[in-house]
Amino acid sequence: MKSILFLLVFCPFWLSAQVMNDELAIKHLLQQQVIAWNKSNLDAFMEGYWKNDSLQFIGKNGPVYGYIKTLANYKVHYTSKAAMGHFTSTILTMQSLGKKFYYVTGKWHLERTIGNAEGYYTLLLKKINGKWLIISDHSS
Prior knowledge:
- This protein has helices at 2-38, 42-45, 67-77, 81-84; strands spanning 56-59, 62-65, 86-96, 101-111, 117-128, 131-139.
- The protein has 140 residues and is of the alpha+beta class.
- The chain is globular.
- The protein starts with a helix and ends with a strand.
């Protein structure tokens, strides 16, 4: 009986703390991407993505599959500091989809001398080997 009472009292606090820890870890991952982008380091920026052929990136030209292809596309489109500009990202919503998945919606902005760009993104993140990684990115 004491065990059940303990679980009923403390389980909601543990779950809430776990959600907070997961959200902090995801926010940290996304902030590390901003830092890497603003240093013009696409390889470091991509550390937030799943290094797998099943990674999905959807942009204005349609879906691209795979970590290597996604990185290659970034390198083709963002060849200079002028093209990359100064990146900011604002999280609009974060939704837990269970213990291993999160859905994030946000807004991105590039302040550039060649003309600003901005849009929105949706990310599906999965906890893989204890680390949150983007497994699907739809940016427009």
